[in-house]
Write a structure and sequence with these properties.
7-stranded mixed beta sheet; Aspartate Aminotransferase, domain 2; 37% helix; Aspartate Aminotransferase, domain 1; 2 domains; alpha/beta
Length: 395
């Protein structure tokens, strides 16, 4: 059966994805089940999307209730569920106004358009090396890894990168011709890299001097994933724009750009839009996510259980220092940098019924559902160490 569905995938789909050989029947909590009934612990939750895991009863209830009312309306109409969701998202972000999208990359595109409307096309926009901001053209140009951009030239003009955590490069590039700087305060695709406090301090000083826009990309590292509302919450900084997506839709397509009051009227009526952005069903699911994360104690739980998990990983680092180079991240957004390419380790974890992800070639990226239990984390830790003991990795 698995071979048949993989053969069908090759016949029908453009071959872009390296599919995991798993024919999934259903999900429950932090586990996925194949059609033979085998259970897998999901340690990257749809790339950080399924914050409440699978088949969450409140999401099922909210989506069912909403789809019985209507599944879609043009954004020519405002809906109560959009208002209810957006009020909560704005409240916990501290921003003034919002525009709802289908995804993170669309939120980034909207941010770039807003910046261009304010400053024009001649001023420079910067992101950081090793960053990832999406697959559409402006978002791809912002992404600080050439492998995502090669072959798609010409890219969007006047978008450049600053060396990650390099204060001298920051000072060299930022000036009166700067329109904006985009940052993932904890990089996801880049291997779970944390922006330094010294770098952010200097960025704030330059922001005060040159009055450019700071954009926090909280697409992966937001919605309580790090134990705080957004990864920038760990720094003394108030970004002008926040873009977010992934977890906020409860597994359904939903993204948002949130802006300060000063930027709320930059894009005039009719200059931007979306057909499906802010879909009522997605907003209904998203409202549940925000309530669980921010109002029912889940974010505090993530901070606590994340500390436990990271400390246990650091113990393994001390025991297997030849294999584990570093453990990084906060909350339940953690990366284990290995001393070797980790694709085979991911396959071996799969054979132990654990779904994980390798990014930046040698980093195991861990983004489990925020509801994961200590016993499930211990299951991962035990099996991870058992693999390290084999001597099958490294040079």
């Amino acid at each position: 059966m698995l071979k048949e569905i993989l053969d069908q995938e090759k016949r029908h789909f453009i071959q872009i994805y390296n599919r995991i050989p798993l024919d999934i029947s259903h999900g429950q909590g932090v586990h996925l089940f194949d059609k033979d009934g085998k259970k897998y612990l999901d340690m990257f939750s749809g790339l950080g999307v399924n914050a409440l895991g699978y088949s969450h009863p409140r999401i099922i209830e909210a989506v069912t209730k909403q789809i019985n009312r209507f599944a879609h309306l043009s954004n020519n109409y405002i809906t109560d569920i959009q208002i209810e969701f957006s009020e909560k998202l704005l409240h916990y972000s501290g921003k003034s106004k919002i525009f709802l999208t289908n995804s993170g990359t669309e939120a980034v595109e909207a941010a770039v358009k807003l910046i261009r409307m304010k400053y024009g096309a001649d001023k420079n926009i910067y992101s950081l090396t090793n960053s990832f901001h999406g697959r559409t053209y402006a978002a791809m140009t912002l992404t600080g890894k050439d492998k995502y951009k090669k072959g798609f030239e010409p890219l969007v003009q006047n978008i450049f990168q600053i060396d990650f955590n390099n204060i001298l490069d920051l000072e060299r590039k930022i000036n009166g011709n700067t329109a904006a700087v985009f940052l993932e305060f904890i990089q996801g695709e880049g291997g779970i890299n944390e922006v330094s406090h010294e770098f952010v301090y200097e960025l704030k000083k330059l922001h005060e001097k040159y009055d450019f826009i700071i954009v926090s990309d909280g697409i992966q590292c937001g919605t309580g994933r790090t134990g705080k509302a957004y990864s920038h919450s760990y720094y003394d900084i108030d970004p002008d724009i926040i873009v977010t997506a992934k977890a906020i839709g409860g597994g359904l397509p939903l993204g948002a750009i949130m802006v300060s009051e000063e930027l709320s009227d930059i894009i005039p009526l009719g200059k931007h839009g979306t057909t499906f952005g802010g879909n009522p069903i997605s907003c209904a699911a998203g409202k549940v996510v925000l309530e669980e994360v921010y109002e029912n104690g889940l974010m505090n739980y993530v901070a606590e259980i994340g500390d436990y998990f990271k400390n246990e990983l650091l113990v393994l680092k001390s025991k297997y220092s030849d294999l584990i180079k570093d453990v990084r991240g906060k909350g339940l957004m953690l990366g284990i940098e290995m001393s070797f390419t980790c694709s085979n380790l991911v396959k071996d974890l799969f054979n132990k019924s654990i779904l994980s992800n390798c990014t930046n070639e040698n980093a195991i990226r861990l983004l489990p559902p925020l509801i994961i239990s200590k016993s499930d984390l211990d299951f991962f830790l035990y099996n991870f160490e058992e693999l390290l003991k084999t001597g099958n990795y490294g040079t």
